[in-house]
């Protein structure tokens, strides 16, 4: 992957103001209702496309804006600040297009990326299986090469956007005896015969971002549905996940920012012992800690973005940014629930939804433990002068 052109002409502060104004006007107001109804926000996804936000870091030659990862993070953060569920659908789209960007042939990039970048084509990413989560090499979905194409059988679970997506990148074993090296990535368009879906899974949070179990019953795909080459799927999946983990960090930072805003607001309005609770040092300490954690997480995500855009090895930076931001987000949201007292436990309060929504961030796209293992795995090769 070559380095992306950096957007030295884009004013990120201005870009943030534009996306925030849009998110405040159109996304934030209905977030609680969508959490209740669990309805897929198709109209808002179209609005994100109309705002030109679906292919921010996709190179211009493939129909994207060709901007830096930092610009993409600004958009993800602002969408997540307004509605984490919408941000989850949005980032799953970016995760779904990454395999084509990093592993597709020129022909596949030309065929798929313009539609993905414009938002006309919504993407999904199907890796996890009932018995293969952190350990992707244990997947059981198989693809057999026949004269008429690839025949796929098996199942995937917890797949975001699966039924709504126009294109799902799905991973299967083309050589079951070869473990990780036997995995191949396939482009699976919507409506392919032999695919069926469970009902949307009932979840603790991000409830309007549906996930499904996907069943593959002798699904036949053309030979050119293989993304890149046979046996490269494991590498493609991990590379795509590393790149997309920075988006999860941005989601965390967006939710954390909203939580901090809510905490600060509530602390100035709520009076006890004749004073706004903000005047109590115990509350100030909580808010100070939230602010410090949020700034540290943002700086870390920006650093990982720059590592990505420089085309450097991203594994350690991506894991550090996801780990730092998602753990900080959980702690910030929890402290803001504390600032709200009993009101923060009530379904009607926004912070209660944020508390449920943010919990997934420490699990999907690699749990916090898996991030730490990746970070530790890189330790022997890090020179102390890099600190
Ligand atoms: C809402 C939601 C949306 C999702 N969207 C998608 C999607 O779009 N596409 C997709 O492919 N997947 C998706 N996933 C799946 C998600 O990525 C997995 O849930 C995640 O990777 C963890 O896998 P698992 O659930 O099987 O947990 P497991 O791998 O079974 O892990 C269980 C526990 O064991 C720990 N553990 C496992 N191995 C080790 C180890 N070696 N050392 C230490 N601890 C370990 C984990 O950290 C965890 O605490 C989604 C999941 C959810 C809940």
TrEMBL record:
Residue stretches making up the Acyl-CoA oxidase/dehydrogenase middle domain: 124-219
Taxonomy, superkingdom: Bacteria
Cofactor: FAD
One example of a Gene Ontology biological process annotation: branched-chain amino acid catabolic process
Domain Acyl-CoA dehydrogenase/oxidase C-terminal residue range list: 231-376
Keyword Protein transport: no
GO molecular function: acyl-CoA dehydrogenase activity; flavin adenine dinucleotide binding
Location of the Acyl-CoA dehydrogenase/oxidase N-terminal domain: 12-120
Assigned keywords, A-Z: Branched-chain amino acid catabolism, FAD, Flavoprotein, Oxidoreductase
InterPro entries given in the database record: Acyl-CoA_DH_CS (IPR006089), Acyl-CoA_Oxase/DH_mid-dom (IPR006091), Acyl-CoA_Oxase/DH_mid-dom_sf (IPR046373), AcylCo_DH-like_C (IPR036250), AcylCo_DH/oxidase_C (IPR009075), AcylCoA_DH/ox_N (IPR013786), AcylCoA_DH/ox_N_sf (IPR037069), AcylCoA_DH/oxidase_NM_dom_sf (IPR009100)
Pathway where it operates: Amino-acid degradation; L-valine degradation
Family: Belongs to the acyl-CoA dehydrogenase family.
Name by which UniProt lists this protein: Acyl-CoA dehydrogenase, C-terminal domain protein
């Amino acid at each position: 992957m070559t380095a992306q052109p950096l957007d030295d002409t884009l004013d990120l502060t201005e870009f943030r103001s534009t996306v925030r104004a849009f998110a405040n006007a159109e996304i934030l107001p209905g977030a609680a209702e969508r959490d209740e109804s669990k309805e897929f926000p198709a109209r808002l996804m179209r609005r994100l496309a109309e705002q030109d936000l679906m292919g921010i870091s996709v190179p211009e030659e493939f129909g994207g804006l060709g901007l830096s990862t930092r610009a993409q993070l600004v958009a993800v953060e602002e969408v997540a600040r307004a509605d984490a569920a919408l941000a989850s659908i949005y980032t799953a789209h970016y995760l779904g297009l990454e395999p084509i960007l990093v592993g597709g042939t020129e022909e596949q990039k030309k065929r798929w990326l313009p539609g993905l970048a414009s938002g006309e084509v919504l993407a999904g990413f199907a890796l996890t299986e009932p018995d293969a989560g952190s350990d992707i090499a244990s997947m059981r979905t198989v693809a057999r090469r026949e004269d008429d194409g690839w025949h796929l059988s098996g199942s995937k679970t917890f797949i975001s956007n699966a039924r709504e997506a126009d294109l799902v990148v799905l991973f299967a074993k083309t050589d079951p005896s070869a473990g990780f090296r036997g995995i191949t990535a396939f482009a699976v368009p919507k409506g392919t015969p032999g695919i069926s879906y469970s009902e949307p899974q009932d979840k603790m949070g991000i409830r309007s971002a549906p996930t499904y179990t996907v069943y593959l019953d002798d699904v036949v795909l053309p030979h050119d549905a293989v993304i890149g080459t046979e046996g490269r799927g494991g590498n493609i999946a991990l590379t795509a996940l590393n790149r997309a983990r920075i988006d999860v960090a941005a989601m965390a930072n967006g939710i954390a920012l909203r939580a901090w805003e809510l905490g600060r607001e509530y602390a100035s309005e709520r009076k006890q012992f004749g004073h706004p609770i903000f005047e109590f040092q115990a509350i100030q300490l909580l808010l100070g800690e939230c602010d410090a954690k949020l700034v540290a997480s943002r700086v870390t995500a920006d650093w990982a973005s720059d590592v990505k855009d420089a085309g450097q090895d991203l594994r350690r930076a991506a894991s550090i940014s996801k780990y730092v931001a998602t753990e900080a987000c959980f702690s910030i949201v929890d402290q803001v629930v504390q600032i709200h007292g009993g009101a923060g436990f009530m379904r009607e309060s926004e912070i209660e939804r944020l508390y449920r929504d943010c919990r997934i961030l420490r699990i999907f796209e690699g749990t916090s433990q898996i991030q730490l293992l990746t970070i530790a795995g890189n330790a022997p090769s890090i020179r102390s002068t890099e600190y």
